[in-house]
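Form 12-C: Joint structure prediction
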Amino acid sequence: MIEAHSLTVALGGRPIVRDVDFRANPGEITAIIGPNGSGKTTLLRALTGELPATGVITLNGRNLGDLKPWQLAAQRAVLPQSTSLSFPFTVREIVRLGVSAGLMQADRLLGERLPEMALERVDLAGYAGRFYQELSGGEQQRVQLARVLCQVWKPVEDGEAKWLFLDEPVSSLDIRHQLDIMALARDYAAAGGGVVAVMHDLNLTAMHADRVAVLHQSRMLVQGDVRSVICDAVLGQAYGCDLRVSRPPANGGLFVLPQSVGTVD
Amino acid sequence: MTLAVSAGDRRGRARMATGLVAVLLACAIAFSLQTGASDASLMALVGNWIGLSDFALSRHDLVIVRDIRLPRMVMGVMVGASLAVSGAVMQGLFRNPLADPGIIGVSAGASLGAVSIIVMGGGLMAPAVALAGIYALPLAAFCGALATTFLLYGVATRGGRTSIATMLLAGIAIAALAFAFTGLMIFAADDRQLRDLTFWSLGSLAGASWTKIASCGPIIVLALAASPLLAHGLNAMALGEATAAHLGVSVQRFKNLAIVAVAAATGAAVAVSGGIGFIGIVVPHLLRLAIGPDHRYLLPASALLGAAMLLATDAVARTIVAPAELPIGIVTAFFGAPFFLWILLRRRGLLDL
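Section 2 - Result
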C-alpha cells in the first residue's frame, strides 16, 4: 500500500501540491486526474521519491525516506512522460537497464530473456536491434514501458506488491496501443501489483481505474471508488466546465469511445 | 543462439573490440620503445634480457631504453588512458558527446593550479609544497580541475538537465578566467620560474622521468580504478537524472564521484604533460561508433585506445621533424579539431544547441 499524509511539495518556493492525503492499494489501478497545472505530475514525482516533500509517505509500510535508492528501485518503477536519450543505445540496451535495476542478483537466464518478453508485451517484438532514437514517439514510450516492466517484472514478490508509476502512459499513443497499455496495467494489478497513473483521458480512466484521485488547484478535491468520482458534479467542479457522464451528444454528433471497441460486430 | 535472439546486443562485439584495442596498445608500446633519435633496438634489449647474447647491447642503449624511452612510454600510457577515460566519463555525466576536459575549461583550471605551484611554490605556498613533496604539482592541478568542474556543473545544470549551450559557453568563460589568472602568475614569475613554466607548458611527454611517474601515477591509477564503479550510473544517466534515480542510482553521490575522478585524472595528466587536447573526445566517439555507448565496455576500451593513440601520436611527434620534436599537443589538435567539427556538423540536428 502507498499512503501519503498531509503532503506538501513546493517548487521554487511556490507550493504545487498542498496538504494532500493519498492512498493506493495493491491489486488496483489508482488514477490521478485533474486539469492542467493542478499538480498531478508533481504529486506522482513526490510519491516516487524524486521530489522532496513535507509530510509522510509510506511504501508497503516503510517510510519512503528510509529506503535507499536501490531498495526503492526493486520496489517500484517509474515511467516518465517522455525520455530523451543522449547516446545511441539500442532498444535492447535500454530495456536491459530495467533488468539490472530490478532483479540484480536474481537468475541470469531470466534476465537475459526478459527484454524480449517485455518488448513482446508492449507489442514491439523484433525491435530489440533498432536504435531508440530512430523510433517514433509512441514507440519510444512503449520501449520505456518495457524497461519499466523489466524492473518490477513480478507483480508480487515475497508477499509484497511491486508498484508501477505511470506518468500519462497513453498520451502519445494511438487508440489501439492506448487500450493495449491500459490492459497491460490492468493485468499487472490483477496479478497483485499496484499501479498509480496520472491520466488525461477521462474515458480510459473511467474504463480501467479502480480508484480515482482528483486534484484541483494543488489540493485533493476527492479520492475514492471510480463510480463515486466519475460523476457530473465532481468532474464539473474539477475541470470547470459542464461535463455530463455517460450521455451521448444531444444533436446526434459523432463520438468514438474506447469503451465500445470490439463490443459491436 | 540465433542472430535474431541477440539483435541489438553489442556485448560480444564490445569484448572483441576491447581485445583488439589491447593488441593495438601492445603494438604501440613496442613501437614506442623501438623508435627514437638513437638507434637503440628493442630486439637487442629483449634479446639481452632473456639471455640470448647474440645481440651486443651497449650500456648506452640500455640507459636510453631504461631511463628515457621506458618512462616516456609508461607516462604516455597513463596520460592517454586518463585523458580518454576523463572524456568518456564527462560526456556521460553531461549527457553530451562534445564534453571534454580540454574544451570546457577543466584543463585550463588544472593548468592554473600547476602554474600556481611553479610560481608560488617557493614563496606563498612553500609550506604546502614542503608537505606534499613531489605530489605538490599534480595535487595542485587536481584542485584546479576539481574547482572548475564543480563550478561548470553548477552553472550548466538546472533541474537535472545540462544545457549544452550554457556548458560550452560557461566553459569558455571559465577557461578565459583561468588563463587570465595563469597570465598573472607568469607576469609575476622570475626568470628561473619562467624557464620551468615554458618547459612545462609546451605540453609533451618529452620530460618523462620515473620521478614524474611516481608523482602522478598513484592519482591516475586510483582514478582509473574508480571508473568502472561509474559505468552503471553513466548508463542510467543517459536516460536523464530523474530516471537514473528511479533505476536505483544515488545520483548525488554518483555525480560527486564522477567529478572527483575526472578532476583527478585530468589534473594528474595535465600536471605531467601540459595541455594535450582532443584525445578525450576522439577516442570515446570512435569507440561509441564501434561498440555502442554501454559504459561498462566503453570505459576500459577508452583507456586502452587512449593510451595506444597517445603513444602513436607521440611517435609521430618525435620522428616527423627528427632530430627535433614537435609538441604533442600540436599533433593531437591537428587531427582532433577537424574531428570535433565533423561530430558537430554531423550531429547538429541531435544536439539542442
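Section 3 - Comments
Chain A has a mean pLDDT of 90. Chain A has nine helices and twelve strands.
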